[in-house]
Specification:
mainly alpha; about 70% helix; about 0% strand; disordered N terminus; coiled coil
């Protein structure tokens, strides 16, 4: 059943049985009905009784209360999800900071090792030069010894 311009839907106007009696049907068909009167269903003018208005107000208030309760429940769920997300974000930030600190430590260690490797390479090159110098010095010493030990032909 469709509401007219002045008549709300029947479920909002269902009131006491005496208020819902059919008013413009033939007298033999007048019976108590929880639905709207025939005049409300067939005309553009509807004048609900105070009890029908009270019933409609209670119905609307109940619907609004239910909707408010549902909204509050959804809001609480959203709040809990946000709190959980914030906790997870804080944990992720802490993990990222720890990983960053570990990476910085690894980089510092790698830099120290690289510096040590450069120092060792320089020392190795220096040692090679010293060995080469030592070989030349030994060769010169041998040459001197050989020269000294040669039999003298001058004599």
């Amino acid at each position: 059943m469709m509401a007219t311009a002045d008549c709300p839907p029947p479920e909002l106007l269902a009131g006491d049985a005496e208020d819902a009696a059919v008013t413009d049907a033939p007298s033999s068909s007048r019976t108590a009905s929880p639905m709207l009167s025939t005049s409300c269903r067939t005309s553009f003018f509807c004048t609900p009784t105070p009890s029908k208005l009270s019933s409609a107000q209670k119905h609307i208030q109940g619907m609004l209360t239910d909707e408010l309760r549902t909204c509050k429940q959804q809001l609480e769920v959203c709040r809990q999800q946000l709190e959980s997300a914030n906790t997870k974000a804080a944990v992720a930030e802490a993990a990222a900071a720890a990983a960053e600190a570990a990476a910085a430590n690894h980089k510092a260690r790698a830099d120290r090792l690289h510096a040590q490797n450069l120092q060792l390479a320089a020392e190795a090159m220096s040692a090679q030069r010293m060995r080469a110098n030592n070989r030349r010095a030994m060769d010169e010493i041998r040459n001197v010894i050989d020269w000294v030990q040669r039999p003298s032909t001058a004599g």
